[in-house]
Each structure stands twice: as C-alpha cells, then as structure tokens.
Amino acid sequence: MAKEKTIIHNKRRNKIRLHHEGTHTLVYTGIVGAVIVCLAWFAKDSLQWGSYAIIGITLIIYGILLNFFRCPIRMYQGPTNKSIVAPADGRIVVIEEVEENEYFHDKRLMISIFMSLTNVHANWVPCEGTIVKVDHQNGNFMKAYLPKASTENERSMVVIRTPQGVEVMARQIAGAMARRIVTYSKEGEECFIDDHMGFIKFGSRVDVYLPLGTEVLVKMGQATVGDETLIARLK
Questions:
Q1: CA gap 180, 201 in Å, rounded
Q2: Dihedral (C-alpha) 66, 69, 73, 74: value to the nearest 10 degrees?
Q3: Which of 11, 23, 75, 235 is deepest in the core (most CB within 10 A)?
Q4: Residues with catalytic annotation?
Q5: Which DSSP helix (H) or strand (E) runs through 7?
Q6: What gap in Å lies between CA 50 and CA 28, rounded to an integer?
Q7: Is 139 exposed, middle or buried (0-12, 13-18, 19+ CB in 10 A)?
C-alpha cells in the first residue's frame, strides 16, 4: 500500500500546471508579445540582427513568466502530527527568536523562507488545524530579505490552531517587486497540509512563527521545497 502511494505521489509530482493567478498576466503579455514578435519579423530586412534580438528577448521574458506561474502538484508524504512543513519553495534566510507584536505579543521562533524570481510562488499551509485569524496589512515594498520587511512591508497573516491547541502563524510578505499578495485561507475553516494558502506575485518571503522550544529541522541557507520539506516539529 505504501509503495502504491509513493508511485501515485511520484506520478502527480511530475505534473506541472500553471497557477490560475497567472491566467490574465500570461494572456495579456502573450498577446503583446505575439504582436512584438510579428512586427520584429516583418521588419527583419531593415532591422537585420536587431529583429532577431527583439524576438529572442520577448520569448525569454515570456518564458520567465511561464516559469514563475508554474504550480507543481505535490503531496506531503511524512507524518502530519506536530509537523511544520515548508509553506514555500526558496531558501532559509532567518532562524531566530523574535518579538511578535501583531498577534502573539510575545517571543516566538521565526523561520523565514525567501523566494527568488525563479522559485515557485504558490504557498502551502504549513500544518494541520483550524484557521483562527486571517489579516492583511498594507505597507512598504522593501527587499523581502531585509529584517524590517517582516513588519514594514505589505503582508498577510494566517494563524492556525493545531489539534493540540498550539497556534502557528504563517506570514506572506511582499518584496520589492511583489505588488499583490493573494490569501485563500478563511477564518473558521479547517486546513490540511497539501492545501494552498495563497500566492505572491514577483519575489517575496514567507515567515513562520512557532512556539519557543520547537525543534528546528533546517539550517540557514538550506533550500526548501513547498509542501515537502519538513522544517520543524512542535513539542
């Protein structure tokens, strides 16, 4: 049975789809790009190599957008009880105790994942439980890897109460290029690992706030895979 589940997981993981958040962007930029390519092609006699350069740059830009909005189908294979799973693809940039003053108003262990332009930007729920708080705060658009980004940038928080009564916060943070944070979680809903929490467009970061004493299973600079990498285990 376990072998069958692994085979199904591997088959699903190999499937890549485009996230619906990118539909309008890809359609509109595709139309503009097609027009640019056609004009450059018809002007190739006068522009010569410049025409091919324009076509190449246009295709590369559209390829970057396609890569950005990809959304792999994933299923977490490990134990879910007390597990905290990476909510995003990226790299660990912060593991430290901080004072969280927007919801908990006490010290928490913060693990931050920075997403570059080349990462998948879909966000997953980090643990199972019930959504008890969802809140969006307007703010600045500083570079997402800066420490002040957690409290001064535009952000959206999702607080989950686990079956053991422990509250965990995941905070989506906009970056210098990010101009839209989408959060799907709703207060009062049950949530499960594998559920999509939201999407952040064009460079961003996700912070996870955990109780002090939580066992950390990742290290600084480590790459994470959303909905697959186990980053911590609650006491």
A1: 6
A2: 120
A3: 75
A4: 204
A5: helix 2-13
A6: 24
A7: middle
Question: Do the Cβ atoms of 128 and 79 come closer than 8 Å?
Answer: no
d(CA 163, CA 63): 42
**DSSP, residue by residue, 165-219:** S-EEEEEEEE-SS--EEEE---TT-EE-TT-EEEEEESSEEEEEEE-TTPEE---
Q: How many CB atoms lie within 10 A of CB 175?
A: 25
192's tokens: 């499960």
Going by C-alpha positions, the residue among 223, 135, 143 that lies closest to residue 175 is: 143
Q: Return the structure tokens found at 99.
A: 């004072």
CA–CA gap between residue 88 and residue 42 (Å, rounded): 43
SS3 172: strand
Task: Pick the closest to residue 168 from 233, 76, 123 (CA basis).
Answer: 233
pTM for this prediction: 0.78
CA distance 10 to 74: 9
Nearest alpha carbon to residue 201 among 125, 115, 128:
115
Q: Are 80 and 128 in contact (CB under 8 A)?
A: yes
Question: Do residues 194 and 227 touch, judged by C-beta distance below 8 A?
Answer: yes
How does residue 9 score in pLDDT terms, banded at 50, 70 and 90?
A: very low
CA 169 to chain centre: 15
Q: pLDDT per residue over 133-164, tens digit each? A: 999 888 665 565 565 656 667 889 999 999 99
- The whole-number average pLDDT for the span 100-112 is 95
Strand-pair partners of 206: 113, 172
